[in-house]
Amino acid sequence: MSFADEWAANEDQLFQEAGSLGELLARMKGYFSSLQIDPESWDKLVESARELPPTLAGFPLWVGFPIDESNPAALLDLSLLGGTQSAAFFKDKVTSNDADPSFARIASLLGETGVEASSLQRIVGDRVLLQYDIDPKRQVQGEPGIFLYPIGPTLINDLSGERIGDFQLAFNAVMSAMNRVPDETERRHAERAYLAMEPDTRVGAIGVIPSRSRFLRLAMLGFVNSRDIMAFLERAGWPGRRSAVANVLERLEAHGALSQMQMGVRIDVGTAGLEPTLDLQIFSANTIYDRTGWFKDKACWKELIDGLREECLAIPERLSGLAEWSSGAKTLIGRSGPFLLLQRIHHFEIVLTEDGVSQVNAYVFLLMARWPRSGT
User: CA-CA distance, 229 to 223, in Å (whole number)?
Assistant: First the structure.
């Protein structure tokens, strides 16, 4: 059986398993018990996912939640690949009278990335990332953020500026999906951020959150130390309090907490320039480029978890729950047959505002795969 056939068979079984992604997540609640996710946030997350197809569990998804004393919240990031039953679900929904307005935006972007051998597909492939920001205090949750995920090195900056055209293509595609004509000032600020990257860093995500529609969100990945991040922020013209960023990074570095890590910087860009809020993302360098390591290396997070605890950036009990949360594959016996449940820590995120650290989040990875058949 080819990979594409196995993929389709996995989606078929997930459709047999549940009526929605929300139903699947509700049944899997026990697997998250050690993570101490706020119960009301979890219920809202499940509720938001009840309008989504269960097949999305067959592709990488991330659940994020605060591990500090900040307000309860949850985040759900979903991978949507072109040519799948999940993608067909969104395209079909556009014609429905009661369709969520976000479905049209998602279908539009899938249509652009789905053009075979197009320049856009060369840059970002045919995957769209959906990000649901769950606030338990909101009666109605906002539309999901919609992001393109550039393929590997396509949106690196080689200092020559020759790749700026590829960045502009991705920028235009996102704006088109939002039915927006970008302000030229906004475009210049975004391009400045792109050109501020060093050659070993790259754009990892580019997208928009409709509830904050006047801002483009960029994630730059590949930083290895605080010095590189601070230099990037200065070149990009970030207006926030850089001393607060340097302080938290240097404190973690002093504990050796970042020695095995790679970091990302997520910024919002508008017509006035970069917003002063900043997200620092921390990934394991041991696992990010090694597919086997994604699930086998549990020790890679120890120094970072210890550093967050020593610096009182997270609640000790929540860190312990993360450390104990087993990575790797578990057997999940479903109604339609057995599944492999792949799970691990994905990354940590430190949110900084003008007042300093405002929130610390952890993200965990999940994927459901039908039990391997003989020969697969």
Answer: 6
85-135 pLDDT, tens digit each: 999 999 888 877 666 778 888 988 998 898 888 899 999 999 999 999 998
Q: Other C-beta atoms within 10 Å of 277: how many?
A: 14
pLDDT at position 57 is 96
pTM of the model: 0.92
HEC assignment per residue over 262-317: EEEEEEEEECCEECCCEEEEEEEHHHHCCCCHHHHCCHHHHHHHHHHHHCCCCCHH
Q: What are phi and psi of 166, to 5 degrees?
A: -65, -40
d(CA 338, CA 369): 9
Q: Which of 17, 125, 50, 112 is nearest to 81 (CA)?
A: 125
Place of tokens 């985040």: 75
DSSP secondary structure letter of residue 36: -
DSSP state of 352: E
First-residue to last-residue Cα distance in the chain: 7
Please state, in angstroms and as integers, the Cα–Cα distance from residue 221 to each residue in 157, 197, 276, 317, following that order. 12, 9, 19, 29
pLDDT at 281: 97
Give whole-number Cα distances, 188 to 101, 239, 274, 309, in Å: 29, 16, 11, 40
- Write out the two tokens for 72: 């309860």
